[in-house]
Amino acid sequence: MERTPDGTPVGVDDPYDVADVCDHLTSDGRCRYALDHAGADREFAAERRRDDYACHVGEDGCWKACPHYRSTTDMKECVRCGLEEVRIAHEDVQPLLEEHHLMYGDASDEPSVEAGEAGIAADDAGPHEITVALCRWCHAKVHKSFARIDDDASPDPEAIAEREQRHGKELDEMGFTSASERFE
What we know:
Mean pLDDT: 83
Shape: flat
Largest sheet: 3 strands, mixed
Strand content: 5-15%
Order of helices and strands: HHHEEEHHH
Radius of gyration: 21 Å
Helix content: 25-40%
Oligomer: single chain
Number of strands: 3
């Protein structure tokens, strides 16, 4: 199983198996990275420009080959147990969902690790940033045990209680109370 730099498990054997499409891929199949960050990797941008900015990975989805691949979460629901996020505006409460790194990209926009180093396969242009959303409870289980993100899991009772409490607050905020009732 893959591990974090601190040595804790991330919950998958191959992060690319659960990774989504590239964050830089537009709906028409073009590479937004080459369009928006041409100065960061001039050679990559020039190659994409010659190909009308088409994503060089194409439809086969072999994201390992792209030096600028990144797949980050939308933070809508836990990928392990399906718990949905409920945020209450103007309240400083801990979110139900947390970003979980399956693979850590380099801090810069350009890859700094050569193929063959640090366990990166020859066909892997990494390091890439790959994240998914996990609820706080699943996140703890993945890092502190042998739990996997693809386990068939149900939300913890504590997680459901927290979510329902937030749903109740949400419904209270949407309720209508006339001014005469509020200021009796």
